[in-house]
Amino acid sequence: MYKNFFKYLISAIFLLGFSVNSSADFKVGFVYVGPTGDHGWTFQHHEGRNAVEAAGIKTTFVESVPEGADAERVIRQLAQSGHDLIFTTSFGYMDPTNKVAKDFPNVKFEHATGYKREHSNVSTYSARFYEGRTLLGHIAGKMTKTNTIGYIASFPIPEVIRGINAMTLAAQKVNPNIKTKIVWVFTWYDPGKEAEAAQALIDQGADVIMQHTDSTAPVQTAEKAGVWSFGQASDMQRFAPKSILTSIIDDWAPYYVERAIAARDGTWNQQDTWHGLKEGMVAMGPYNSAMGADLVKEVEQLQKDLASGKVHSFTGPIYDQKGNILVAEGKVADDGMLAGMSVYVKGVEGDIPK
Amino acid sequence: MSLDISFIGILIGSIMASSVPLILAASGELITERSGVLNLGVEGMMIIGAISGFALMVITDNLFIAVVGSMLSGVIISIIFGFLTQSLLTNHVATGLALTIFGIGLSAMLGKNFVGIPGKEFPILFSSLKESIPFFGPILFGHSIVLYFAFALPFLTNFFLKKTKLGLVVRAVGDSPVSASNQGINVILVRYCCILYGGAMCGLAGAYLSLIYTPQWIENMTAGRGWIALALVVFATWSPIKVLIGALIFGGITILQLHMQAIGFRIPVQFLSALPYLMTIIVLVVISRDSRKIKLNTPTSLGRIFYKEK
Prior knowledge:
The complex is a heterodimer.
Chain A: H1 2-24, E1 27-31, H2 41-54, E2 58-62, H3 69-80, E3 85-88, H4 94-103, E4 108-112, E5 122-127, H5 129-143, E6 148-153, H6 158-174, E7 179-184, H7 191-203, E8 208-211, H8 217-225, E9 228-231, E10 244-250, H9 253-265, E11 272-275, E12 282-284, H10 293-308, E13 318-319, E14 325-327, H11 335-339
Parallel strand pairs in A: 1-2, 1-3, 3-4, 4-5, 5-11, 6-7, 6-8, 8-9, 9-10
Antiparallel strand pairs in A: 10-12, 13-14
Chain B: H1 5-34, H2 42-60, H3 63-87, H4 92-111, H5 127-132, H6 136-140, H7 145-163, H8 165-175, H9 177-182, H10 187-213, H11 225-235, H12 240-263, H13 269-287, H14 291-297
Helix pairs in contact in B: 1-7, 1-10, 1-11, 1-12, 2-3, 2-4, 2-10, 2-11, 3-4, 3-10, 7-8, 7-12, 8-10, 11-12, 12-13
């Protein structure tokens, strides 16, 4: 009996010591797909990290980690080197994150924009960027003279397709003749290629350029060519002051701080977070005065309605390219459908790369 | 979609603009390799050129200083490579790779304060002629001076290698450093010069990106163009003119495939994205299939360490 008692005592001391020790050394790791200076996607995640650091929690980050085999190595290394919570901030880190999570049940993982939570220590989170795209679509539909919107797309994943669809639906609502032209560049970040794609779309008649890639090159190309554009992920206005109508801004900071504190205090649990304009994870940059006061007012109202839930980006009737109904009249798309979106809506040109 | 003649002119103009960094970097590397030195640090030297050019433009507000400074920075960083491989006799491949990694890291560090600063307009020449002449206008005019230089460079390089005595020296050093040395040629000095020249051209290629093509500094903005330039040199079998052809094909198909997507061609996009790489290799292999000529152009001692017994 005493033997057992000692066993318990020793393990209790051990556990206590361990937990005290680990909370003193509580560390959060971040894995970025691009450089922190991209002024887009990674930049905003890095801002979130800075907020965590400001909240008094130690953090480290690894930038420009390619999606794929390399990612697993980096994530594993962070897990091994005593990080208690690891944010993996790109869609392509989905499988590596889950793979590493299996081997490190005591480390918490947060994967951005993915849908796989194979182990109880993996959470996923994303922002409802499509709500921002709805606003862009509304603006684009009103601003275009050629009725052609150019869209620079990165990879054919639901996240990107959802953005294209949300934008097109909103643009069609204010301008039934709208056409969306899409160029897939198969990269998140290559300023030269993004600029070339923007130029190709402009040459093909697009007078509003939208991007789902991370560099500021497309907005600068648009500025040079004298067409409209939108900033992506962060406020890109100063790169193209005349051309940018507004920007979709990702604000990860509140979420990161909340989750890091939860993990430190032991209240972290698995969840799937999808916040939008309402919670402020998606925010809009300043509206260009070239839009005119009426349109700005209109868009601001729409922004409020989207945030309050009065308006939903995917309200039926919605048809696919072949004319089959996707969402019936009077209904809105549910989150399951949004998360797995893999077809274009009517009015988008071309095929989704398979 | 408008497929009229003036549109094709604009298209060719933008294809030319996109091939400039490849032509510059590949032409520089070609000279380095013809002297028998394999420098895999092209990407690193380009990115250093890009940040130096941009930083100097911001600091001095003078584009001439920026361009010259970017070339100098390429030279400075290639001195490291030259010293290691020529004086300390390290392995070319490993040293070159290290140079690339070093360059990318250093540029990111140097560039921290230059992110988010909009670039300056780079002057273009004959812009009025560009607008007034259909088709030929956008092809021949309205470019930056760097573009004209880049398109002259392969011909100058060809002339240098084939018609000048110095070119002969470079080739001799690359083919048989021992015989060249026995002829009284200072092999190490020649190789140093070729390495530094390669560095200058790569620096200029980087500055073209950060000052002219997409006028801004963003980390890693060369995005692998250095590696493509390296591959071009090999597939062009060390011939400057074929480097030019290869760079134009690569740039051309990259831009054409974007246009084909925008037009809405029903071709799988993945195939279109792979097309520039495939076509460039196929075309260069086909036009250089004369094995006798390949032998003539290939620097026999490429990548081998040379040292003079004293």
